[in-house]
Amino acid sequence: MTAGFTLPASAADAHDARQASAAHGGHQATQAALEGVVQGGPPGAIALAERGHDVWAGRAGTADLATGRQPRSDDRFRVGSITKTFVATVMLQLEAEGKLSLDDTVDHWLPGLVRGNGHDGGKIRLRQLLNHTSGIYSYTDDEDFKRQEFGTGFLRHRYDTWTPEQIVRLAMTHQPSFDPDSKKWGYSDTNYILAGMVIRKATGHSYAHEIERRILRPLHMDSTTLPGTRARVPGPSGRSYSKLTGELAGPAEPDSVTYDVTELNPSLAGAAGEIISNTPDLNRFYRVLLSGRLLPKRQLEEMTTTEPIKGMPTVSYGLGLMKIKLSCGVDVWGHNGGIQGSISQTVATTGGGHVLSLNFNGDWNVHEQRVVEAEFCGA
To answer: How far apart are the first and last CA of the chain?
Structure first.
């Protein structure tokens, strides 16, 4: 979902991480950052860092405001736009198998679907869906959608089912964000809804089936699921909370009403953000992906060929994968994600040798990049 893309940590965040490290050393800096984010916003958090034989699990706050249950390191949660890396990986595998080309147009696979108000699927390549250079309007920016799904309208609509066709039709009621030939960049959840539809056309199976067959089962990611329209989060899991301000992952007053949003129909996110996982599974996926064991060399090079983002010199975007240059000069690869009540991120160094996954069970005042800075730059 839209909160799957955020600004890198500020200079103050990086300074705080280094100060915490100087005071505590090792992963205590990461723990301090985790606690600091929880103090200013979401109820609870978990994190898992792995580097060779060094494995550290952190937690802060509470997983359930009603019972006081503490977060567990194996808790499952909605990962939001981290889903995009899984979808892009499947698309690149299909390219390697000759079942599609990233230079194919959207119209080649989905004729006539991307049309209206200036949208033209005949001009947009599959690659542009994956790296967000298509210009296709993001349906999650629609004001009515935001009121219904991210505002208090959610309480009436949380179990509604959205089909991919409905989502694309909603996006087509708006003008494109820019022309696909303009070489601009703009994050759009609609891109990945379309990518999921292309996977079905190319394979005869849903993107969920292909992710399960190609990634989850081979990597024994037994805690990761694609729930479709199922509203519950499998256990073990805590609860998820939102202020329902109408903006996902925005600021909120600490004394405003907090809503339990754990149960929801994730079809509103689909291939843009429906996956449920936990930190061990996410670490395994990105470690294996970045080590070159899921994609041939050429496809991994395509995935890690990034587009610059105007106004954000330390962040660039590849194919379902972000590259972030941290304050200490370290490059990390990964993705973050937000969906109602859940903000997550996984990042890893080049090659996957050092990986961190984290989740906050609230979607307001979350500054997850502070934790990333502490883990990779604090020492």
So the answer is: 32
Q: Residue 46: which H helix or E strand, with range?
A: strand 44-51
Alpha-carbon distances, residue 115 vs 108, 112, 135, 191 (angstroms): 13, 6, 13, 14
pLDDT in tens, the chain (379 residues): 655 455 454 444 444 433 433 333 469 999 999 999 999 899 999 999 999 999 999 999 999 999 999 999 999 999 999 999 999 999 999 999 999 999 999 999 999 999 999 999 999 999 999 999 999 999 999 999 999 999 999 999 999 999 999 999 999 999 999 999 999 999 999 999 999 999 999 999 999 999 999 999 999 999 999 999 999 999 999 999 999 999 998 899 878 999 999 999 999 999 999 999 999 999 999 999 999 999 999 999 999 999 999 999 999 999 999 999 999 999 999 999 999 999 999 999 999 999 999 999 999 999 999 999 999 998 5
Active site residues: 81
Helix/strand/coil (H/E/C) assignment for every residue in 58-114: EEEECCCCCCCCCCCCCCCEECHHHHHHHHHHHHHHHHHCCCCCCCCEHHHHCCCCC
Global pTM value: 0.94
CA angle 334–339–341, rounded 5-degree value? 115
**H-run or E-run covering 241:** strand 241-242
